[in-house]
Fold:
Amino acid sequence: RAWEQFVGDGQVGAVRSPILESWRRSRAAGVDPSPAHRAPAAADEEATAARWEDHPLAGAAELISDCLASIAQDSGQLIVVSDADGLLLWIDGPSRVRLDAADSMNFVPGAMWSEAGAGTNAIGTAIAADHAVQVFAAEHFNEVVQEWTCAAAPVHDPDTGRLLGVVHLTGRTKTVRSHNMAIAAAAARSVELYLRTLIHEGDGRLRSRYSDLLSKRGPRLLVAPSGRVVGST
Structure:
């Protein structure tokens, strides 16, 4: 009823504050809330595959799967990774659920699931709010997505703090668990710890490679491309 009021004449009903803020952003972006709207295709299959291959989170796909595969299989949900713009890069999970999501709401690699692309949804809203969110059923701005419930958490580069993308769980509302947001957030933190480990390993290789220069007389700094000091005398 609150959604119907909002999309009808902009009246505000009893909805959570983060959802209301997202509805307002979605409306301001001109998103059509009717079932005729689908998330737009932003990249074809080949371009999406190339983006995923080069993406910093691609190397963490196995870790993400390890964190989320059991709940995805047991409850019929999808594991998803998007980039920082909301472009879907990788989807895993039961094939019947993947087909259902693709047919009903264009939930496929290459689709744009930012708030501006698809309205309020866990991926786009996690990007806009920069924290983990769960969006239940009719909290989605677009009516066609309201049979689904999703949870997502952003992943940041431990070196620069830059948003890299989003880890996401989605499924039909009847299959979703109340703790999905906590699980998605834990998976995102695990990925950030993994990326931090890679940074430390890279720092060690830099210090080893340039040890002769660092050992010369006088004050010296070894600086990573991000500007972080990884060695000094």
